[in-house]
Amino acid sequence: MLQNMTDVIFASFKWEYFYSLHKSIELMLPEFEDVRTAFRRYSDKDLKLAKMLFDTMRRPRLTKMGIALTRASLFLHLPVTSIIKKTLFRQFCGGISLTEAGKTAKSLIDYNVHVILDYGTESKEEELDFDKTRNNLIDAIQYASKNAIPFVSIKISGVGRFALLEKKHNNEILDKRELQEWDRVKGRVTTICSAAARYKVMVLIDAEETWIQEPVNVLADDMMARFNITEPLIYNTFQMYSKGSLDFLENSLERATKAGYIIGAKLVRGAYMEKERKRALKFNYPDPIQNTKQNTDEDFDFAVEFCLKNIDKVGLFVGTHNEISCLKAIKRMTELNIPRGHNHIFFSQLYGMSDNISFNLAQEGYNVAKYLPYGPVEEVIPYLMRRAEENTSVAGQTNRELLLINRELQRRRQKTFH
Q1: Which residues touch 122 (CB under 8 Å, ≥6 apart)?
Q2: pTM metric for this prediction
Q3: In a 3-state reduction of DSSP, which class is residue 83?
C-alpha cells in the first residue's frame, strides 16, 4: 500500500526545508503547503471529521481499542455499521455501490483528479464469491469506460483461493481438482483483462504477500504480454520495500522489450511489512523486507528514474504519499523534457489522504488518480481496519495530515473573521 514521508520531515514540518528544495531545483513546482487547494472540496464538517479521525489514529492505544471493539461488535452482530459508515467509511471510501463511487469520482474530476475504482472486499474463499468479484470488476470496467474513469484495481487473491496461490508460489504439485481450480483463476483474470482491453480501461494488479506473489507476477506478465502491445493497459505492482524488487522491475522491462510489449509498473513502497517480518521470524527464513527505510526510499526513487528514462516502453504509476519522491519525480520529468500530462505517467494517493499532494499536482497539470475503495460497509471493514492500523503505525503521516487540516481550518476561521 502507499507510505509516509521521511520521518524527520514529518516530525519537524520545516517549511525551510521545502523552500530550499524548491530553490535548489530552480523549477516551478507544485506547492504542497497550499491547503486551500488541497481541501477546497471539503466542507467544514468534512474537515472536522477528518481531524477527529486522524487525531484518533495518532494514538495507538485508542486506535487498537477501537479496532478491537469494532471486531467484537461485528462478531456479536451489534449495530455498528452505521457508525463506521459515518466515520472511517466516509473518509476513506467512495460509497457502498458502484453508483455511489461514481458520484464521488465525478466530484473529484471537477478538480482534474481521477480515480481508481477498487472493489474493496477481501478475505473470500469460495468459488461463488470469486465469480461474484469477477462480475463486479467487469461491471466496474464498463462503468469506468462510460464515465472517463481511467483505472480499475484488482487483487488476484480476490478471484482465487489464498492457499492455492501459496502452493503455486512454492511450486508444489497440484492435484487434479487444484489444477482445475487454477484454470478458473486464470480464466477470471483473463476475462477481466479482456474486458479492460475492449473498453480501454487500465487495470492495476495489486501486490500480495511475498509468499503468494510469484503466481501473481506470472499472471501479470501473461496479461501484459497479451494486452499491452501498443499501450500500457495492465499494470503489475512493484513493492520497493521488498528485497529484489528493483532487479525484478529491470528484468520485467527486459523481457517485455524482447517480447514486444509495454510494461505497466505501479510503484509503491509496500503494505505488509509487519506481517512479512513476523512470518519470516516465525518460520525462520530471511526477512524479505529491506533492512532500512532509507534503502526502500532509494530503491523507490531509482525505480521512478528508471521508468522515466524508459517512458516510451513503460506505463508508470507513482503510488506514494511521500512529498520528496513526488518532487524528485516531477523534477526529472522536466529535466527529461517529459510533458506534465504524459499519458504514460500517473501519480496516486489513497482517497481521504494526502490531498495536499493530489490536488496541487492536478492543478499543475499532472495526471493524478485517487485509490477509491467501494462496496458494502460490512465487506469493506477489513480494508478500513487496515487503514486505521497503518495510519497508527505511521505517526509522521498522521501528524502531517493533522497539521494541514488544522491550517485550513484556521485559514477559514480567519477568512470568516475578516
Answers
A1: 155, 157, 158, 379, 382, 383
A2: 0.90
A3: helix
